[in-house]
Amino acid sequence: MTRILLVFLAAAAIAGCSSSTAPISNGGSGGGLVLVPHALDFGSVPSGQTKDTTIGLFDEGIDTATITSNGVSSGAVRDTNFSHPLTLGPDGSRTIHIEFTPSSQTASGTDTLYYTSGGIPYNAVLSINSSPTGGGSTGGGSGGVYAPTVIDFGSLPIGQMHDTSIVLVNTGTASITMLSSAVNSSEAQDTNFSTPLTINAGGYIMVHLQFDPAQAGFRTAVDSLHYLAGGSLHSLGITMIANGVSTVTSPGAGSTFTYAVDTNGVLIGTTTETIISNTLTYQGKSDVIEVRDDTGTINYYHVEANGDVSVYIDFSQAAGSSLPVPLPSGWFTIPIGSKIPISQTLFDSTVSYQGIPITIQATSQATYIGAPLVTAAGKTFATSEGSLDINVTGSALGGIYSSGGSSTVTIWYAKEIGFYPKRQDMITKSQTGGATQTSTTHYLLSSYNIVH
Q1: Whether 319 and 294 share a structural domain
Q2: Residue 42 contacts residue 201 (beta carbons within 8 Å)
């Protein structure tokens, strides 16, 4: 029988895999922002009569905001809340009273609030209107929702969900019901409306939104809110933006990671991975991390800008390799940051081996699995789990003889240490007419020493 020799990847070949925000305001972004309803509808108010209402003021910025004074457009608007400066801390709120006395000549007005935040002057304008004739409600009286149209989360680490709070204000004179929301991207979340929420006339609710950039650079998502007001369905959109950044700090030269190792459930001892360099230029990439294990084997991995982890595999050096044709060595990426599966065909052809034509196929599949917590070395690590699977099959004589092999490495990568607290290597070999053999080795971090 002609022996069909295929590559069966050894674990050593891939050991290196182990490897409240505010909308932009007129004074600039990043400072304080006092959020007020952009339009306050007093509804039906008889001419010459005064109506009092309350509104909420919210500091949606990262700095303390101090409201120093205000100015009204006419005597029809009365705001006596700022005889002394009023200070709001970040995410702070305060309820104030505003009075309006419409006349046949004045059915609207403005109240401008002047404040400082982070040493920068700002102003917020509240528009006021009513129906002075009485005898019914205006269209605005049926209710409406005020919300920031843009939320800038600023620079966020890739793969880390960031929470912020915003205020939804009912600017009308009748209650409204928030029904649902829909976000057009998996990078953002709005889980506030699993059940309908009612906002009373002139009232407000605070809700939470989350954003997790999947890649480096500018990222955006739109949250569509649906609500019922005056018996009619309405909707509004909130655009969330962020700048995704990779904040992984690579372990420096001299860092060590020691693992307890077991194969098929049998403890076989410990092994230590030592970082030789994290600034290496290797095979077209910069800042490559060079790792040496107890056997002296050198492996290389690289954290991409989008948070993915790439490992260099040299198939010519893979232990146990024997194939009539060489597989292309190169960088293989596990998409723990981008979360997008990566499939590659490494080889698919028929070659002659000892005079017999052999059809050989080799493929790889890299997959993001999830973000579980891993307990190791006396700590609990937040990780990103992903796997790289390489399969090789060969057949000859019309399939009479066939053989196959696969190797799968699964990593649990922790940004906190720039390495992996857990890894699993699984090697499977099969052959026509024989039993399939599988060997699974687990590595669990028992101790580590990081040098920066």
Answers
A1: yes
A2: no
